[in-house]
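Why this split exists: single-chain examples teach little about how molecules sit against one another. For that reason, every record in the complexes split bundles all components of an assembly together and asks for one structure covering all of them. Below is a record exactly as it appears in the raw files.
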Amino acid sequence: MSHTIDLMGLQLKNPIMTASGPWAGDAVGIQRCIDAGAAAVITETISLEAKQRISPRLFCDDDGLFNTMLYSNMHLEEWEEELSTIDRKDAKLICSIWGSTASEIAYLSKKVEHMGADAIEISISAPIGSRNLRMLRHSCDIQEFMGAAVKAVDIPVMVKLSYEAASSPNFLRELELSGIRAVSAIDALKGLAGVDIENQRSLMPTYGGYTGQHIRPVSLATTAALHQYTPLQVVSSGGVLDHETAIEFLMLGATAVQLASAILCSGYGIITEIVRNLEHWLTEHGYSSVDTLRGTALRSLRAFEDIVPRSLCASVNEKCRRTECLICAQSCLQDAVYLDEAGTIAIDPDRCDGCGLCVERCPHGLLTLEWR
Amino acid sequence: MNIRKIAELAGVSVATVSRVFNHPERVLPETRDRVLAITEEYDFTPNWFARNLTLGSTKTIALLIPGIDSDLYRNIISGVETVAGNKGFVVIFCQTRGDAEAEFNFLKIMKSRKVDGIIQVRSLLTPSMAAELQTFNIPRVHIGKNRECGCEMMCYLDYEEAAYRLIHHLSGLGHQSIVLLYDNQGDDITPEIEAGLHRVSRELKRSIRFTAFAGENSAQGGYLAVQRMVQNGDLPDVLVTAGALQAIGALKAARDMNLSIPGDLALASFNDSPVCSVVSPAITCLEMPAAKLGMASARLLFDRIEDDDQDMGVSQEMILQPKLKIRESCGNTTDIFELFD
């Protein structure tokens, strides 16, 4: 069974790509992504001026990751050399680029096309440094910028979007008119790890890009919303951790997904694991292709206004005397959940307004919502 | 010792010795080792000039630049040299001192030295000089906005957009009159600044008074400018200097004359320098991507040198964008602006 997909006219052997980032910062890293089975590898962002890296540049907060890396520290000439040594096998190579003017973007596009890129991803909205707001505030420039790349090359061009950019229908319309073929979303969110309150200091010296599993809900919603806003193909990134989360994105309409933090935290082997598990899952569940699964969860989503209010009330399904727990009672703003005289959890149906929080939070699954 | 004798001693042809130096991968390893052993024994290095006459490339480019005394020029030089180094080329450096005649002569000398390409910074060539260079047949890139010097490729900074961003910021802080101190030896950026200013006026529907005068691009020049304005009794809301050193001089003059910056006079510089973030108040500047400008122009040049037919298919003009660095010297009090967002 084949799990090939079509992305911007490119045949990818599976829907698992690696995002632009330090894991693809040179030939060795890119080769490891390819060897691990990624269908397409996106290089770390190539610019006209290599940027020095700050140290430290990666920060952690439980399972969340923050990075303060803008783009590659390799010169264009070094990239040319590196890319020429890669054995691409059956993977596609996509070059991520960034430039501050239309002519700069056009030049870099042409350059990476000469260097053998199969496609281009333009990074416009990494939340590090000061380019994010600029692009959004001047959205009239975006068509000119992206159009310059599209006109300069014969290979397909996609654009990586921040959450903010991906949430603006007007911005997406401009992108569509520029001739790009796909968008990837979301880029890292702008974040700070916290404040050392004893010393009145931010834990990070500057804003970082917040990535990883905690941004997955935002990314899932963006994937679904992009489907309403634009006919462009969507490549999802932000919290793709395993094959199941990858399937979530595909079911919400993603053409493919990009791995990022997962590689930083688990190594290149995670790519192989996700590709293998995804194939296994698809076969096991009888999907003949990725296309037959794509977007299937979208029909279960509807506009908030279209959801008909149902008259539901919480109910306890078995006697609960865990007086040390009481999470359900703490979760009730209406004081509808209480301990009765016998010391068991009870619900006052006159007070309960059916919000469902006690049901969601009960660690033992003892509560459900029932029709009144 | 010459290549013929080496060939004789090694018992191979002259062509083989030549291949050992230029394409060692095409020579049998044992032959290569024998030739290299002999060259080492006799301390022989190939004649650089003779070699390059044969190969048709001297692996040199020339950089014609008005001076080395500004951060902008230093960073351009550094950018050009970095890319040339990546390509295995050396850079011949010619200081034109803003003299068209000197520039023209350097170009002729560089042609006779058979450089592979030339980068001209802020060229002053007249159209008739440029016409004389028509048959030059050496790839040339110009750094600066000048279509008359006969260079087929051009790379420059978008001063108008830069001025727009700076003046938009100044206007937002309520400033209504601006004096520009431009560099009497450098580009007259007045037209671009005026264009940016008009855009701001139109957008914000505010009139901004603007005058400009020239001064030396030094701390001295900045000092004298403030002194002159104070003594003439026409202190504007903002002084914008072309160079960072001028801004430092203006800061000193203000201190000597008990003027508060930004209270009595706001101060901004059209070029950034590391000192601008160190002084107090820190000076609001435009950061010019000069190193990137040098790198970009060198890349345009090498694209042409390496492949004559390589039509990049895009315009041979590259425009780069300066960045506004909002600090304290114009009245900004928000810390967050200092993160340049």
